Amino acid sequence: MIAGFGRSLCLCAEPKGNMVSRRLKYAVLPYVRHALQAENSSERRLVLDVGCGPGKLADFCSSLTAYDWYGLDLWEHELLQAKEIGSYKSVFQVNLLNGLPFRDNAFHVVVCKEVLMYLPNDRELFREFYRVLRPGGKVFIYNPIAWFPKTYAALKRLGRSVYQASDSVTLDTQSEWRTATRPCRIAYLSFDSLMREIREANFEILDVTAFRLFRNRIRLMARLEDYDWYLNFTQKLAARRPRLATDLMVVGRKV
Ligand SMILES: C[S@@+](CC[C@H](N)C(=O)[O-])C[C@H]1O[C@@H](n2cnc3c(N)ncnc32)[C@H](O)[C@@H]1O
Prior knowledge:
This protein has helices at 28-38, 56-60, 76-85, 122-132, 149-162, 191-200, 219-224, 228-240; strands at residues 45-50, 67-73, 88-93, 107-113, 133-144, 168-169, 182-183, 203-209, 247-254. The chain is of the alpha/beta class. It has a single domain (24-148, 188-254), classed as Rossmann fold (3-Layer(aba) Sandwich), CATH 3.40.50. It has a seven-stranded mixed sheet with strand order 3-2-1-4-5-9-8, with helices on both faces. Strands 6-7 form a two-stranded parallel sheet. Strand 1, helix 2 (56-60) and strand 2 form a beta-alpha-beta unit. The protein is globular and about 45 Å long. It starts with 27 loop residues before the first helix and ends with a strand. Mean pLDDT is 86; it is low at 1-18.
């Protein structure tokens, strides 16, 4: 557990400009912001947001003035939105299949939120995160997990044989990604495989936590999140038993 920020984070409404819904899928935002805020340093700190998408996380953390955010993503439309929010110093168009185009020891923090499930080279990317971090630097990996990833992937493939958006692309092939707007490969890791891969990249694990036990595809589950008792109960249980969760937050340090 990292000193200075707790597991039970309140999902209350944020100040204007930083509004987040009470939904558990957003609980990761205050978690990361508290963690960054708890770092006590007079030095300016550089954060690399890997697969930044439209830049929600950087926007949510924009009140932390000691941090300079750099975002990267594959697609231009995501980068345009990220640029528009004005929370990044720079954004880069990068295909993560080719690793990270940054020098060693360049960043104090790497965040990677809900990206690795689209990529076949997650092992290699953990090593890349390690390489671009300074010694003592921290990585925040937030990724979906599944109990039975292979069964889950098979069900997904079946679903895709019925429906597949025409503008999506399987990134393993590197084919025609410029004309696509979204990735279609989704391969979740299990709790154990995610932890193993992060350890194999040499990170020291500082914290493992989670925020929710169900994805909200089922309407009833989404409705339950209107109730405080459900939010509190689920969040506490997910934090205590992250193996039961649908998404995992792992914080590691480059030693
Ligand atoms: C589910 S979104 C998450 C976005 C952001 N991290 C967030 O949490 O709001 C996944 C992101 O990964 C990006 N992505 C997928 N494959 C990528 C690749 N090969 N290289 C770079 N980015 C990629 C997508 O463009 C998308 O923005």
